[in-house]
Amino acid sequence: TEGTPGGTEHILLVDDEKNVREAVAHTMELSGYRVVAAANGEEALRFAAMHAGLLHLLLTDVVMPGISGRELANRLSRIRPQTRVLFMSGHTEDAILRHGVRNGEVAFLQKPVTPGALLRKVREVLDAAAPHGL
Question: How many separate domains does the chain show?
Answer without folding.
Answer: 1
